[in-house]
Each structure stands twice: as structure tokens, then as C-alpha cells.
Amino acid sequence: MVKVICYLSNGYPTPEETIKTADYYVEGQCDIIEIDLPTDNPYLDNELIGGRMKASYQHDPSFSAHLETVKTIREKHPTQEMLFLSYESSIKTVGVEKFISFCQEHNILDIILVGNEDNVVKNQLMAAGIKVSSFIPYHLPQEEIDLAKNSNGFIYLQAKSTGKEKEGCHTLKECIDYLRGLGLSQPIYCGMGISTREDIELVEKSGGDGAFIGSAVLKLQEEPAKLVSFIQELKGN
User: Fold this and answer.
1) Is residue 139 within 8 Å of residue 166, measured between CB atoms?
2) What is the rounded distance in angstroms from the CA atom of residue 193 to the CA atom of residue 202?
3) In angstroms, how far is CA 208 from the centroid of its own chain?
4) Residue 101: CB atoms within 10 Å
5) pTM surpassing 0.90?
6) pLDDT for 71-90, tens place per residue?
7) Domains defined for the chain, CATH in brackets
């Protein structure tokens, strides 16, 4: 079964609402909660997620409230699988060692690290047992594949073509088969443009291990019943 991974904006609109939304994700049986550590410069995120990040960052640039929110979610849901998304600059503000200790203490050992500058922080995380993911675009550039080979986390694979494709890899299944043929054995989670049960089924039929749901769940945050139902629908329940 493909894991359904739901994005959660940390601290937006408030820490209390973030915690409530996490409760709804768990009720809907979301497999993994992807929670961010916000930033004032979300240059790689879309307008919806980036806007939430900037607003949340302005409420607490020290990140103490954001970490407390994650701690509360973990205490309420001790067995729920979670992963972090964070820009490197945010981790540096928290302090790399402090961030590592927090992840270890609260059993959040997977991270999407954005804005990696010189591999120093990445290597520190990996040395501490934090699994750092690698992003591979749909057209499978060799440079990104090489980075994935030298990382210890899951692969975040772009799920849909934007027109640029590698020869012989025109479908998602062909892309995943190509990566597996190169010996990449870590989980492959697909994202960007995933928003329906049909998309989840495509990932499953293609051999993917998980699917990221971002804007589609965030837009339902103020409608809890619809949010829970939507997650259950994504899972085929």
C-alpha cells in the first residue's frame, strides 16, 4: 500500500489550529504527517505553502513555539509517523545540535532538507542518524541521482511530467523502474501535483512507496469533516 503523506503548516494560523489539524490527519488515517519548520524566505515553495510559512515565521522567528507544537503532536500521537521539512537556514537558527536532539527525542528521523548550501549541515544530520531525503525531477538528471546515491533518506520523485523527460522514461513507472535498475533501494515517495485517489493509484501501480498531498489537504483545514473524509478517500477507505 502506498503511504499517504499529508502536509501540515506548523503554526498557521496558530499553534492550536496546527495541533487540531494533526488530530484530523490522524483521524483520517494519514500514514505520515509532513510538518514544516517555517522560514522567512520559502523560495522553493508554492504561494499557498510559502505564504503560510512566512506568516508563521513572523509569529516566532526563534522557532521555540514551532518545536513545542511538534512536541505536543508527538505526545498526543506517539505512534504517528512524522517527517520534517525545513530550510537549512531555519535549522541553523535553532542550532544544528539542538535540532538533532529534538528529532531524536521525538522520533522524527526523516527530513526534507531545503536550501542545502555546502553539505555541512546535511552531513551532521546524517551522521546523527537523521535520514535526509533527495529530490529527483521527472526528467531524472544524473546529478540528482548521484546525490540520492550518497544520501541515506527516501527519494522525493516528481510525480508528473512538465514536458522534459528522459529518453525511455516517459511514464512514472518507467522513471521508478529506471531508478530501481540503478540500484537505488530507498523508499520512493512521489509528489507535486498529487491531489486525488486516481493520483494515489497511479503512484501505487508505478511502484512508488508513498505520495505527498500538499495544497489539497491544506485548503480543507477549516472544514474538519471534509478534511477527514478526503484523507480517507485518498487511502481508498
Assistant:
1) yes
2) 12
3) 15
4) 12
5) yes
6) 999 999 999 999 999 999 99
7) 3-234 (3.20.20.70)
